[in-house]
Amino acid sequence: MNQPAAPTQPHPSMPHAVSGDAPRAGAEPVASAMDAIGCLSEAHAAWSAEVAVDLRRGKQLNQRLAAARLAVAIAAVVALIAAFSEASWGFVAAGLTLAFAALVALHSIALKRKSQGERWDAYLKHRKAQADLNWDAMPEASELAVTTGAEVAADLDITGEYSLLRRLNACISVDGEQRLAGWLLTRSIDADVPLRRRALLKTWLEHPEVLRQWSELYQPERRPSPAALAAWAKRPEAPTNGFVEKVGEVAPFLLPLAWAAVWWLGPKTSWSATLTAGMFALAFALVTASRARVSALLGDAGFAARDIQTLRHAIEVIKTLQAKADVRTATPSGEAPPAAAPSAEGLAKHLASLETWLSFAELRAQPLVHLPLVLLTAYDVLLARRVRTQRQHLATSLEPNLETLAELDAAAALAWYTGLERAAVWPSIAASPTFSAEGLAHPLLPSATRIANDVPKLLPGSVLWITGSNMAGKSTLLRAVGLNWSLALAGAPVCAAHLEVGPSQLRTSMRVEDSLARGESHFAAELRRVGWLTADLTALPPVFFEIDELFRGTNAQARHSACAAVLAHLLRAGAFGLFATHDTSIAQHPSMQGFNLIAVHFTDVLENGAMHFDYRLRDGVVTSSNALALVAGLGIPIPEVQAPTT
């Protein structure tokens, strides 16, 4: 059950953070930690007011331009009719026609700006909804396919409809969202990496106008994927025979020359009609011979053109950010990324050139213009050759920059979360495996109703032993710990008064379900999950586990011994974490002797004869159970319980 939690205040002794190079592991950043948290609130309000005014003015301008177009069109028709009786009206009609064309161009620009303003307005509203945890107003959760860390993602609500990723996702590209999910599902990490991510995040926040330029590239109807674009650029062409290849090479040069010869010789010969017909036949044959190859190259030009345009603008924003700050991001390996790769400048040029040639391909949708061009100049063949050349250049220049684009996009999303979130602090990143927290709360619950709890310091070989009443908050505490662990190692602020975390591999066993499709019972599913929990425990960093009610699919006696054996096996290997259970006697099992078990519990509170939950974590093992009382509260008579009381 999700527990409410009280709002937490920033801890007065929280460390500081830098916004340049990442400090060494264990070192604390140097700028005020609270300088970044919540710093976009005023800018967001100003931008929202500004775009509201722009949209209102844009609507009025569009109405006026539409009315002007109609009036000028009517006047042009009247002038054209008058020109039949008075020739001088022809000049008036021509002038009005030019004025109409100018108004059409201006109206097109105004409509484009209106569309951009509406997208920016929607983007700002989505960010506000995420900050306020207004799930109904947030953008829809994307169907992101998670492979690595799928168990953790499902157990902790990192992905899905009401998830951490949905609250954080402000990415303008599919690749950025995938990278953000990868950061949240980090399983093995160097202590320097979250600090580098934090440094990049704060670099965005130091330059909010550049962050705005980046965010204005958002297109909800279709987010680009630089990786998919790179795959498109590297996609091999369909094989063709030698004759078709040669025809495709000579057609753009042969046809214009042939048509020039027909134009010059036609009036001088008596067989000009035959010559023209023969020329049409030749043109048709040349174009037909290379049609399949041209279609393969230009058939998906519409798919690529808009993505290329967005990517080109993104490169320009990156160059602006690099001009304002020395940006260094972190790759998954922790090595210096290609944020300022030498190919970035060349990439911008290749994108601009390819965008220009692909814009020419739009004529293919206008048959009255396209068909004459094809027959007279082999337009498609020439265009396909240029697109092929630019695609090859793009393939070599885009791939080295994919890491940078994804990292910057993910960091920009975390920057929005940081800039609009107030009840958060920067975590302390330790160089060695550890976890502890003060005032820790669930980041997906409203700040007005959160209940914060302290988590004592956990080190390898120790476990927080959580017992308690039904619905009292055990599972919510586990998810609160796991989500804040994910936020901390992703480089973001956490929902706590103070939190310290070190390198570790997060593994969970919470929402284990049977599967009819796999022919797997609940106990078989639990065995499979335990196999994953205990696999390769000697690998570094150590496992940080979160286990909730293990082996629910078997009898009490077997569960008692099996849980003790699994937990002892984990602790013996140096793992550490949280273990929630209703079985208070597991701690007395012989297998558990000699380990560091820190016992805490949740319980219900009886007030005026009614059962309540305060969701407060208390020391020690729970001494009561409310299961029978809760069942009796449904009106079901239970002989052992005369009244619903604990």
Describe the structure.
The protein is α/β, with parallel strands linked by helices and 646 residues long. The chain folds into three domains: 36-132; 226-412, no CATH class; 428-632, Rossmann fold (3-Layer(aba) Sandwich), CATH 3.40.50. Helix content is 52%, strand content 9%. It is built from 20 helices and twelve strands. The chain has helices at residues 41-83, 89-132, 150-156, 164-168, 174-184, 192-206, 208-215, 226-234, 242-265, 272-289, 291-298, 301-324, 343-360, 367-377, 379-398, 402-420, 474-490, 522-533, 556-572, 627-632; strands at residues 428-429, 435-440, 453-458, 462-468, 498-501, 505-509, 543-548, 576-580, 596-602, 604-607, 610-613, 618-619. The strands form three sheets. Strands 6-7-8-4-9-12 form a six-stranded mixed sheet, with helices on both faces. Strands 1-5-2-3 form a four-stranded mixed sheet. Strands 10-11 form a two-stranded antiparallel sheet. The chain is elongated and about 110 Å long. It starts with 40 loop residues before the first helix and ends in a 14-residue tail after the last helix. Mean pLDDT is 81; it is low at 1-33 and 327-342.
Topology:
Elements: H1 41-83, H2 89-132, H3 150-156, H4 164-168, H5 174-184, H6 192-206, H7 208-215, H8 226-234, H9 242-265, H10 272-289, H11 291-298, H12 301-324, H13 343-360, H14 367-377, H15 379-398, H16 402-420, E1 428-429, E2 435-440, E3 453-458, E4 462-468, H17 474-490, E5 498-501, E6 505-509, H18 522-533, E7 543-548, H19 556-572, E8 576-580, E9 596-602, E10 604-607, E11 610-613, E12 618-619, H20 627-632
Parallel strand pairs: 1-5, 4-8, 4-9, 6-7, 7-8
Antiparallel strand pairs: 2-3, 2-5, 9-12, 10-11
